[in-house]
Design a protein that fits this description.
about 325 residues; four-stranded mixed sheet; single chain; alpha/beta; 13 strands
Length: about 325
């Protein structure tokens, strides 16, 4: 039993330790646990909430590493299948002094891509308060998409609150047209949608935060809130009832790695809502964890404990 669950593909990430050197030329790498959904789960767990992660891994060193890291982060593994027939995905990421790093995947035909949706029938939903969904897992295979849709159905039946982050990965989709159509359809089943400005432009043709929010509020009856991530500028929030507001972001001294900021944002938002904070308080926390995330080289190693989060908010004189 847990307060939070998600479905995804956890990945062994090899991050370059050499700044501004291409993946071809880099020689020194550090191994991390990665994957957008697992990043969110790490953030939720680190803030003291019980979690379960749903996936399928290969019985190989990368799979063993991922299970070990999930256990260290106190993430539930009750709904993880393991197989000898397929391998666990991994990826390479370079380190850059400015902008977003380059990433190269080794995940086609992975264990998670052969996901068996029958594992979802074992889930105990009795204590689940939130489920986080991402546009990545449905992209990796037809089996994953089928499992994703089945989970959405189960979440609706159990009246579980859901967040959805588009998390666009064009390289995993057959075409951009299929990606846009599928992501927008899946988003329509979520209560809270978390697009970024760049994602909005790709998915519905606008970079205007309110236009993006209006599109998704009208896209499905289930959706009640859209939070458009604005990067260092913060986030724009609009609700079905027409109320809207902007929450400014936090300035940081140095951006080390932007990957994982959006996932930290989701973890902050979800944990605050689980704790019955107001929506504005939840977005403040989301912005704070996003700011902390970009100051560390790993995808999720910058996510805070409750004490570290409190210290950050106090230092920035945030009235919660």
């Amino acid at each position: 039993m847990s307060e939070f669950l998600t479905i995804g593909e956890p990945i062994a990430l090899f991050g370059s330790e050499e700044v501004d050197k291409s993946l071809k030329d880099a020689s020194h790498f550090q191994k991390f646990l990665a994957g957008a959904e697992v990043n969110v789960t790490v953030g939720v767990s680190r803030l003291g909430h019980t979690t379960q992660y749903i996936t399928k891994l290969g019985e190989d060193p990368f799979g063993e590493f991922i299970i070990d890291q999930l256990n260290k982060n106190k993430i539930g593994t009750d709904y993880i299948d393991e197989t000898k027939d397929y391998w666990t995905a991994f990826q390479l990421k370079d380190r850059v002094s400015t902008g977003d790093p380059n990433i190269f995947y080794f995940r086609k035909g992975s264990a998670a891509a052969h996901f068996d949706k029958t594992i979802l029938d074992r889930i105990d939903f009795s204590d689940v308060k939130f489920a986080h969904l991402s546009g990545i897992f449905p992209a990796i295979s037809k089996e994953a998409l089928e499992g994703f849709r089945y989970l959405v159905q189960l979440l609706k039946e159990h009246q579980i609150r859901t967040t959805f982050d588009p998390n666009l990965r064009p390289q995993l989709w057959e075409s951009q047209t299929i990606m846009v159509e599928t992501i927008n359809e899946l988003a329509s089943h979520a209560e809270i949608i978390l697009p970024g400005i760049n994602e909005g432009e790709i998915l519905m043709g606008s970079r205007d935060p309110e236009t993006i929010a209006d599109f998704y509020l009208q896209n499905g009856e289930v959706t009640q809130t859209v939070i458009v991530k604005l990067g260092e500028e913060g986030a724009f929030v609009k609700q079905k009832n027409g109320k809207s507001f902007t929450v400014p972001g936090f300035k940081v001294k140095e951006v080390v790695d932007t990957v994982g900021a959006g996932d930290g944002f989701a973890a902050g938002l979800i944990t605050a809502l689980i704790e019955d904070k107001t929506l504005k308080e939840a977005v403040i926390r989301a912005n704070a964890i996003g700011a902390l995330a970009v100051q560390s080289p790993g995808d999720n190693d910058g996510y805070p404990t409750p004490a570290e989060l409190e210290t950050f908010l106090n230092e920035h004189k945030v009235v919660k």
